[in-house]
Amino acid sequence: MGFKVDLNCDIGESFGRYRLAEQKEILKYVTSANIACGFHAGDPSVMRETVKLAIENQVKIGAHPGLPDLNGFGRREMKITPQEAYDMVVYQIGALQGFLSVYNESMQHVKPHGALYNMAAKDALLAEAIAQAVYDVSPELVLFGLSGSELVKAGEKLGLVTAHEVFADRTYQTDGTLTSRSQSDALITDQEKSVTQVIKMVTEGKVTSQQNTEVSLKADTVCIHGDGEHALAFAKYIKETLERNDIAVSSIST
What we know:
two-stranded antiparallel ribbon; 8 helices; alpha/beta; globular
């Protein structure tokens, strides 16, 4: 049996005079785009431009809602209630949906960003609030969440289509969570090591943790970070390497 995986990228994370990454080029190599909705990054003009670029490159579009923290890029935890999480997600999906309507394009998925994503991976109440927000906007939307996390479980419980997400450039802990970015070993910077990890996750359903244990997981979609120093080169490299290893790269909805 052949393997298939979606390749997603966090994108549209420039705002104002701050410009980030080579969006147009990266979109040639990914199949799903998670577009920032203005809270952790992005602004109205960047959102519109990114939507247009994604459509031109035939990349499926998803909302990438985060915590309201531009200075911290949405990667700092905030103490929020489930109701606040619900409201933030509905609001940000709506912002992106407005631009999609202009281009008569549909939204494929929703993927929380940064600290909100990691908090919802462990906190069942936050996860349920986020999943409910997605469902209430449209039960047709796909919910992206960390593989095996509370967020994915909450989406499945509601009847949403979910995508178990794995990370190309992050290391893992024995419980299946990502190593905190506060630790020096959180990121994988070697391209070959990164792709080897992805291939193992897709074909074997396993990842080797930092504690050298085998952790089982499911890999429906692989995240590439668009803000990385060598994001474009890595996007091209991972897509080509996956295809050389007979792993088809296509969006969740195809």
